[in-house]
Amino acid sequence: MRGCLFTLLLGAVALALLVTLGLPPIAAGVLTGAVTAAGLQADDTTVIVSSDPPTDLLGLHADEVRITASDATFRDLRIGSLDITLYGVNLPARTADEVDGRLRNVSLVEGSQSSLALSSVRLTGAGDEVTASSSVPAADAEALVAGAVESAVGARPSSVTLTAPDQVRVRVSGLTVHGRLLVTRSGDLVADLLDGPSAGDRLMLLAASSEQLIRLTGVTVTGSGGLRLTGRLSVGLVG
Questions:
Q1: How many CB atoms lie within 10 A of CB 216?
Q2: pLDDT tens sequence across 159-187
Q3: Are strands 77-90 and 61-74 parallel, antiparallel or unpaired?
C-alpha cells in the first residue's frame, strides 16, 4: 500500500514538474516556429510563455506570451528591435485576446520602391484587429514628398509645406502646387494634386505591396507639420 501511494505521489510530482517546467518551453518552441512562419527573421528571437495556473497550458492556452528580437526583418520591414506581448493566447487557434507592443528603428528593406524610416511603431488591438500607429517628424515627411515629386517631374522642390489635417503645398520649378494626402483602399499613401498643370493627377508617396506587414489605413498632418500614420497588421503574429 505504501509503495502504491509512493508511486502515485511520485507520478503527481513528475506531472507537476512537467506542467511547471516542461510545458512553457514546449509552447515557446511552437510559437517561435509560428512567428518565424509568419515572416519574422532574427538571430535572437525570444518567446516567453507564462500562465497562472500553469495547468492551463495543458489546454494549450497561455495567459501571456512575450516576443522580443533585435536586428530583425519582418516581411518588408527591417526592425532594430521589437517587444510584443500577447494576452489570452489560444495556441491551436493561433489567436490572442489582446496585443500590445512596439517596433523601434523601422525601415523598409532594401529593394523597396519607397523609403521611410520610423523611430517607433506602436501595436495595439485584439484578435485579428491589430492596429499600428506611428509619427513622422516634419522634416522626414517633407523629404518623403520632395523625393516623390523629384521622381515624378525630375526637379527637386524648393519647398514643401504640410498643413493639418491633410494638405500639402509644393513649390517646384517656379510653380506652387497644392494637394491632399490620403491612403487608398489598397494601402498606398498618395497625394492628389488639386491645381497647376498636373491637377487631377495622383502622386505616389508610399506604395503598398503584397509582402507588406502593415497595411496603411489613414494619414493626418499634425500641428507641427509631421504625419500621423495608422494601419493594420496584415498577418497574424502567431501564424
A1: 19
A2: 999 999 999 999 999 999 999 999 999 99
A3: antiparallel
**Grid cell for residue 190:** 498618395
Write out pLDDT tens, residues 33-75. Answer: 778 888 889 989 998 888 877 666 666 778 888 999 999 999 8
Instruction: Count CA atoms closer than 13 A to 101's CA, side-chain side.
Output: 21
CA atoms within 13 A on the CB side of 103: 25
pLDDT at 220 exceeding the cut of 50:
yes
Quote the DSSP letter at residue 57: G
Place of cell 500621423: 228
Which residues, 6 or more positions from 182, have their beta carbon under 8 angstroms from its beta carbon? 166, 189, 190, 191, 192, 219
| Residue 63 domain-assigned (yes or no) | yes
Q: Which residues pair with 121 in a beta bridge?
A: 103
Q: Tell the burial category of 229 from Cβ atoms under 10 Å away from its Cβ (0-12, 13-18, 19+).
A: buried
126 and 163 both lie in a single domain: no
Extract the C-alpha cell encoding 56: 492551463
The pLDDT of residue 39 is 85
The single residue listed with the C-alpha cell 497588421 is 233
SS3 at position 142: helix
Last residue of a domain, one of 66, 99, 130: 130
For residue 176, give its domain range.
138-233
The answer to whether residue 27 is domain-embedded is: yes
pLDDT digits (tens, 9 = 90+) for 83-121: 999 998 887 777 889 999 999 999 976 544 556 889 999
